[in-house]
Design a protein that fits this description.
The complex is a heterodimer of chains A (338) and B (184). With 338 residues, chain A is an all-alpha fold. Chain A is built from 14 helices and 4 strands. In chain A, a hairpin with a 2-residue loop joins β3 and β4. In chain A, α2 packs across α8 and α10 crosses α14. Chain B is mainly beta and 184 residues long. In chain B, 6% of the residues lie in helices and 36% in strands. In chain B, a hairpin with a 2-residue loop joins β8 and β9. Classes of the chains: A mainly alpha (338), B mainly beta (184).
Chain lengths: 338, 184
Amino acid sequence: MRRTGIALFALAALVLGTAASQHKTWSWDLPPGIAPPPVPGDNPMSKAKVELGHRLFYDADLSIDGTMSCATCHDQKRGFADGNRTRPGVHGDPGRRNVQGLGNVGYLAPLTWADSRLSTLEIQVAVPVFGDDPVEMGMKGKEAEIARRLSKDKCYRTMFRKAFPETGGSIDPPNVAKALAAFQRSMLSYNSPYDRAGRGEHGALSAEARRGKALFAANCASCHSGDNFSDGKFHTIPTGSPSSDAGLAHATGRAEDKGKFRTPGLRNASLTAPYFHDGSIASLEEAILRHASVVPAAGTLTASQRADLLALLDALTDRSFVSDPKFALPHEACGKPL
Amino acid sequence: MSFENPKNPMRAYLLAAVTGLIVLASPASSRADEGHAAACPSTVDLPAELAGWNTREPLKAGKSADKLDNATLGIGTAVDAALLGTPDVKYASRPEKPGGSVSYGGLFAFTAQEAGRFRVALGSGAWIDVVRDGETVESVAHGHGPECSGVRKMVDFDLAPGTYTLQIAANGQPDLALLVTRLP
């Protein structure tokens, strides 16, 4: 009896210890010299939370009719962008803006094309899931339905308990948002030829890309700045297409914000076509030319210089990121096939 | 998009312009989902390969690839497919977009009597896979049907003679208009 009691105590300690360590520990897989993305104090990273967010990211039960998951629009092989100009929601409502890639999204703020209020990934989750301007996944007013669907799955109940022991594993929209945010924060992309060249790998960048890098620094980097090639600020660049999109003004209501959109990051840009907020620009070369109204040099580059710039942009492609199983459709959870 | 036909880009462009079909460079199955809406006339002329679209017979989907004797599609014959709840479907190959527990899906068999390009047309944006011997066949083009035709999505496959499984996943409704047709 006493031995049984000791064994049970040891087992309980082991289980609790494992749960605690899964909750507390997170190891960023980052190259030397790169700081982790900012993490909100109320949503610390943990392995359990990222695993849960990974599964949720691919779960179409987050949409009203079970047809649309985050991954429906954020396709790994496209750098987690879409490939369409815009994507209609579950009820067929036209999408408002082009889907952006997610490599290093944890470093970007504000998020999306034109909403200064979206300062964290936790806040942004509500836009596709619960938003109605336009309807994307169609769950507005259906918060309890998400909990009902996920709670039916024993493995989800376990995963939420491990990820959120402080709430007793509550399956609710805030915890769904936190898990999705944690997973997206783990989507690090620092293994492009550009990155490897920065780490001293000889030959990682072609001669064309090296020339393109100089052109980029001289003409593009004032807005496409920093490790992720975005200053996080809002600018106006005419697309050439008639547009009813008010841009930042749609969120702020201020006339002076009309037509302004946040500088998009450029990581994996060669995979994320089409371009610009409305997806009206089919190719990166066309995108370069479209900048001529605000960067006159963009319109005067020779074909050879454009090729160099395109080689640099292509060198921002992290092939390991778009094939990494850590970010792909999960095929098992809780040790069982999905 | 980086869609181009490496063999004949001009032909691909013209095809896309005429039918709304995009030729794929590489991706797997089915995606052509920008949505379209217009005031529709009462009748819409359909190309010959879609001629069967408006005369559909009901057909129940199978729940697993080994039970499709009563879920066989005839080439060129459209059906109103009755799908199953996704949790009840056992896919031969896990769909890339599996659909949630509240969505619908199912399996059908069809036979390509001779090699050629076959088109799967459907009335929704559901995910589809064509599977043979447990392996998904890579699609070669995708797009949408003529405006107002009810054909929301079309995906083309180059197939060798043989019997294939058509997997439907992530459909929002339990019914689905469906056609497999051979292109000229």
